[in-house]
Write a structure and sequence with these properties.
The protein is an alpha/beta fold. The chain folds into two domains: 49 residues, Spermidine synthase, tetramerisation domain (Spermidine Synthase, Chain: A, domain 2, Roll), CATH 2.30.140; 222 residues, Rossmann fold (3-Layer(aba) Sandwich), CATH 3.40.50.150. The protein contains ten helices and twelve strands. The chain has a seven-stranded mixed beta sheet, sandwiched between helices. The protein binds 1-{4-[(3-aminopropyl)amino]butyl}guanidine. 1-{4-[(3-aminopropyl)amino]butyl}guanidine binds next to strand 5 and helix 2.
């Protein structure tokens, strides 16, 4: 066992478990009107953004989360033109959305400071997506924005903090109802929905809430090393299309046509992501596991 020395940063998911990183340096630590924002540089994961002590993204593994948040839904849609991202102030999801031939991507982030700091310190994650002509950045609360917005979307992506605390409204039935009426008839919503080990109740609640509003709802998974417990859930609601049932050849054709380059996502991963372990199927009330 190597000896523990130097400066460390720990995320505590509850009173009994944490994930810890040795730091090269602390870059920023400040309070915005909404939350504590920290930027650190770790030895293992490069630069990392934390909000209220929870790791949001890191240079080394951001591609896993962002590709899996964006591509399964966007490759399911035959012609996505207008996409809304709620949260995602680091720009990693925006960058992946803009790889598709969308006409407009609107990012609504509540905390201006997160966007400002990400532009300065995390440009390797956003890859300058904020400057793209097809991108619009709005500083607002996602719920109020959607209430006001009249024009419909093809996809709504919720790239929020955990489904606990101040973000819970974005996982509510009321929010999904509003999202449903803000989507075109082929529309979809996809949300990060937390850790299947440490937030299983929240994953279930998200899935059940979505299922009450959307005709089709799916949970799918990816392993994100910097998120507590690694195994991370995404929940997708759809009006018409069934993402895991779109033939891989169709998704492949779209990937080639749209020139989507990935490091984690591929068609086999897409297929496998919708296969759920038995404990999760049972928690979601789908007990037909073999
Ligand atoms: N959004 C999801 C982060 C959840 C991580 N949770 C945690 N560490 N407890 C991240 C925003 C990235 N664009």
């Amino acid at each position: 066992m190597p000896e523990k020395k130097g400066l460390w940063q720990t995320e505590y998911i509850n009173t009994d478990y944490g994930q810890t990183y040795r730091l090269k340096r602390k870059i920023v630590s400040e309070k915005s009107p909404y939350q504590k924002i920290e930027l650190v540089e770790t030895f293992e994961f490069g630069k990392m953004l934390l909000l209220d002590g929870a790791v949001q993204t890191s240079e080394k593994d951001e591609f896993i989360y962002h590709e899996m948040l964006v591509h399964p839904a966007l490759l399911t849609h035959p012609k996505p033109n207008r996409v809304l991202i709620i949260g995602g102030g680091d720009g990693g999801a925006l960058r992946r959305v803009l790889e598709h031939p969308v006409e407009e991507a609107i990012l609504v982030e509540m905390d201006q400071k997160v966007v400002e700091l990400s532009k300065v310190y995390l440009s390797s994650i956003s890859n300058y997506a904020f400057d793209n002509k097809r991108a619009t950045i709005i500083i607002d609360d996602g719920f109020s924005f959607l209430k006001r917005e009249k024009k419909k979307f093809d996809l709504i992506i919720v790239d929020s903090t955990d489904p606990v605390g101040k973000a819970t409204v974005l996982f509510s039935k009321d929010f999904y109802q509003l999202a449903f009426s803000s989507l075109n008839e082929e529309g979809m919503i996809v949300t990060q929905s937390g850790s299947v080990f440490y937030q299983l109740d929240e994953v279930r609640q998200t899935f059940f809430n979505l299922k009450k509003i959307f005709p089709y709802a799916y949970v799918y998974l990816a392993s994100v090393p910097t998120y507590p417990g690694s195994l991370w859930s995404f929940t997708l609601g759809s009006k018409l299309h069934l993402p895991p049932l779109i033939p891989l050849s169709v998704k492949k054709e779209r990937m080639i046509k749209r020139k989507i380059k990935t490091r984690y996502y591929n068609l086999e991963v897409d297929l496998a992501a919708f296969a759920l372990p038995t404990f999760l199927k049972e928690a979601l009330g789908e007990t037909n596991s073999s």
